[in-house]
């Protein structure tokens, strides 16, 4: 049996090596159009900054290693230009030797990944100082440009994870950095509470951030950016991190079914609509494990796992793919930021609005042990307590809490289970009640109506004119939320000044991130007030 794989970065090699362990007699060929396979693409920013100094360590497997250890035929610089599903035949262009040939297959796997998209900026496509970062060849080009041209200022178009990671890399190299992001916050897909903390961290490191802006054109020999509001910004170098698109042009030519967004449609066994053709990784649409809604499959970790699973499926194992939860983690200077499942922005984009949330800021370990720092942790769940997602930011212990929530989602735990999750305790690592335990307690209090809550947009107009709105922020904290306060009484003074609050009016505690508003609400409720906590 002859298996041909198109694409050799993440899912393709995972499939090939697992298949070899299951079938010693199979003929296995990987066709990769670029210069390397099994590249640790997520490590490329650290290679550029010098944190990872050795380029070769980014390549997990070479063609020679795969041939020697796994008897897999890997062909670099081989670009597949056409698929004939009826003949089970590929047209391949060997770009290194400028030769074209045909290759037959019994079973075909498309692991073609995704490519960066370019925003509609005049003159951008022709700019020799503008770069993307998806392959090791891209990294080589950026490194060579910096070494040869010694740029002083770099403009980054797009404030997502790759843009921020590269902002740190360029800052490490001594470049001045400006991030230009067209939305109102950076650090997508994270919600505003998390993005605000990331923004402060970047400002601490002198990264300039321009949100709510886009670039209209490049002028002055491509070294000046004209923004949508007329502002002009000089930049010696430009990085484009505005998104990716699936590499599915080849699939479309072969009449493989695609979604409106261009992803390959597969079933739970990764089969396309064309017989003997399968697909995995960034190029496909799968389902979300939490809701069953369709979703793209992104990042290398799911692609690797899908490749391993598909090899088992092809060898007749009774397995099916259950869908993707979605999880990510990034290092942004001294912060770790991580998520799993849905963020609030993702829920709203999918038309899901009937959800609840908690936002807490406990310490990452016991407060009496040296060096405690806050973990800002947000949990999303529905009215039945089903966990929809979580996200967090902090200096330490962030990824392990998000990993625990991801495992809880996979195991069908709900918020009522979180207080009982046994997190290993020792003062340097945790508290007797860990972050996720506390999140569970607060969520349960919401669901059991220990404190009434309301979304800001659901407050009636007459209530806005007649009720009492209490802001419990301390004197050193800025205002927050969209509802103006009737009065500001800091939480630390609330018990002493509680008589200032009228009992003949409903009391609404205005929005503020953290557990403070909840504590204020329990104090007021305990004193007989009709109190409601505002969510935003």
Radius of gyration: 26 Å
| Strand residue content | 25-35%
Query: Termini distance?
Result: 57 Å
Total beta strands? 31
Largest sheet: 5 strands, parallel
Low-confidence spans? none
Number of helices: 14
| Average pLDDT for all residues | 95
Structural class: alpha/beta
Q: How much helical structure, as a percent, in the residues?
A: 25-40%
Given the C-alpha coordinates, what overall shape results? globular
- Strand order in space, largest sheet: 3-2-1-7-19
Write structural notes for this entry.
The model has no long low-confidence stretch (mean pLDDT 95). Helices cover 26% and strands 26% of the residues. Strand 22 (327-332) and strand 23 form a beta hairpin. The protein has 14 helices and 31 strands. The strands form eight sheets. Strands 3-2-1-7-19 form a five-stranded parallel sheet. It has a five-stranded parallel sheet with strand order 9-16-10-11-12. Strands 22-23-26-25-24 form a five-stranded antiparallel sheet, with helices on both faces. It is an alpha/beta fold and 536 residues long.
Features of the shown structure:
31 strands, globular, 5-stranded parallel β-sheet, 26% helix, 14 helices, 536 residues, single chain, alpha/beta
In short:
By secondary structure, the chain is α/β, with parallel strands linked by helices.
Layout of helices and strands:
Elements: E1 2-6, H1 11-22, E2 27-31, H2 44-49, H3 63-70, E3 73-75, E4 78-84, E5 89-94, E6 99-104, E7 107-110, E8 114-116, E9 130-131, H4 136-149, E10 153-157, H5 161-172, E11 176-181, H6 192-204, E12 208-211, E13 215-219, E14 224-227, E15 232-234, E16 237-240, E17 244-246, H7 249-253, E18 264-265, E19 277-279, E20 284-287, E21 294-296, H8 300-314, E22 327-332, E23 335-341, H9 344-349, E24 356-360, E25 375-381, E26 387-394, H10 398-410, H11 435-447, E27 452-455, H12 461-466, E28 468-471, E29 487-488, H13 494-497, E30 507-509, H14 516-526, E31 531-535
Parallel strand pairs: 1-2, 1-7, 2-3, 7-19, 9-16, 10-11, 10-16, 11-12, 18-20, 27-31, 28-29, 28-30, 30-31
Antiparallel strand pairs: 4-5, 5-6, 8-17, 13-14, 14-15, 20-21, 22-23, 23-26, 24-25, 25-26
